[in-house]
Prior knowledge:
Chain A is an alpha/beta fold.
Amino acid sequence: xxxxxxxxxxxxxxxxxxxxxxxxxxxxxxxxxxxxxxxxxxxxxxxxxxxxxxxxxxxxxxxxxxxxxxxxxxxxxxxxxxxxxxxxxxxxxxxxxxxxxxxxxxxxxxxxxxxxxxxxxxxxxxxxxxxxxxxxxxxxxxxxxxxxxxxxxxxxxxxxxxxxxxxxxxxxxxxxxxxxxxxxxxxxxxxxxxxxxxxxxxxxxxxxxxxxxxxxxxxxxxxxxxxxxxxxxxxxxxxxxxxxxxxxxxxxxxxxxxxxxxxxxxxxxxxxxxxxxxxxxxxxxxxxxxxxxxxxxxxxxxxxxxxxxxxxxxxxxxxxxxxxxxxxxxxxxxxxxxxxxxxxxxxxxxxxxxxxxxxxxxx
Amino acid sequence: xxxxxxxxxxxxxxxxxxxxxxxxxxxxxxxxxxxxxxxxxxxxxxxxxxxxxxxxxxxxxxxxxxxxxxxxxxxxxxxxxxxxxxxxxxxxxxxxxxxxxxxxxxxxxxxxxxxxxxxxxxxxxxxxxxxxxxxxxxxxxxxxxxxxxxxxxxxxxxxxxxxxxxxxxxxxxxxxxxxxxxxxxxxxxxxxxxxxxxxxxxxxxxxxxxxxxxxxxxxxxxxxxxxxxxxxxxxxxxxxxxxxxxxxxxxxxxxxxxxxxxxxxxxxxxxxxxxxxxxxxxxxxxxxxxxxxxxxxxxxxxxxxxxxxxxxxxxxxxxxxxxxxx
Lengths: 363, 326
């Protein structure tokens, strides 16, 4: 902790509180209180990613940076249904899901900037956001590599006799990998409580789904694993909540996996390195999808139902923009990791303490 | 002291550690109902049940990843590869997940798990079933790589590996499973990262690991008849490598032969030689010679396989060469 951070204790507390309140919604599908929370979660992701793009262009963020803009209903819709003891694992397009889970904007932005106060102490970067306290298991860069890991989490849940679920987000390109096949086969075979959510945004980097997959209704691949499977509209946060909600129930109550294909679209390129449109997808297609901006859809519905005034929306947007600005200021001020950090966290020097911790297995 | 096979020594270690800590489970092909492809897990299914001794489909990449996920969620998996040759498919999980998770999460996710299986050649198993993987696996930071050559070492090191909170890659050997040695009845652990002097002499050091330690001991015993006395430094662990043990021996003998199972280029022995030249340059009276597999995929024909493999005769020739005897 640097001397500067100490004087910001109040701001730290405020940021933590904001993060916690975002993570608490777990209730029914109805009610204006819940919808406000959904809107807040989605709009925060949007404002955060917009500023992230800026920061990247300014050179404050390096390497690969994959933005979630356009897909916010999938993260928010899913994660709003989870308990704190459920698990989430995802790909490198992880900023939106991390925010939806309640990781603080500060710790994520600092991680993107490669600073010591980042959630991964600057060692992971954009693609490797982790938070053990929130059971957010990363942030993974090898396409498909994390899917067997999700199956393993499901195995651990069953091993201990718990009723937690593991949510595994993935892009639609993942379904062609060997790892996907192996992981889902075991989940179906062993009946594990994992919800595999395909965020089908139609393009694996620059390759359209139709050029990569022999079938287009890719949720049908679940049939190969004796797995319940479905498809839903990923721009409608309520449609996501409905479908994911059913899958979560199935996992929790029956310890059965589900393969859910959520149809969505990213409004930015694959990463900050490619054009938004004009190379592998047309501007016309992008504009068509932008008409179904998930945030606009929710906002309009809430306004029509009298749940949201223009004033409230403005206030919310200002708050969230201020939160993201605060995150940027925090990240700017946070120091780079010290040289010693280079060699930290390669190995741990501990061994198991069977007596103390083994007792926790069955809990 | 009881004399026990290498296989049974491993079986004892697995059983004892699974009894001690119920987060520990074993997963792999044929480990349960078949009692283990090489019978290392014999009897474990009966004792611990099918949730703790888990048969998998043929899915090395998949079940290695299942181990990673289970470790992230707080269990202590032992992932068995029927042979490390098959584990190449799983290396993405070993390298990109297990070895790197702690680091890229900023210390949040230690990976307390063991990947184990037989390594290196057996008899006429041909090209795809005969490879030694020490140098591939030891190259990456974030794991420990253990290669026990005797039943005593196997048991003590496997217990340590299971208790270690890091990913430990444990390399056994089909040719080792039937070998016998003394194994104490009382519990003992061997620290990972410590070599052992299996023979002592001041004429030459033979630095080795894994099943080659048995060859080295044979060589030492044979040379002793001609009054040539050699140190046999059995590394037992190749990552981290016991540099102090290597130094102590070479500083005493001034000559070294490195005996290893793998190929020449960037083999594990090349690293040993680097440590020697770096830390014992002025102690050397001769260049260091390596004895290793011929630079070919392993052939099937019995005579060709024998030509390809490192053995006692080649090692003796190397010792005589560094001693300028021939």
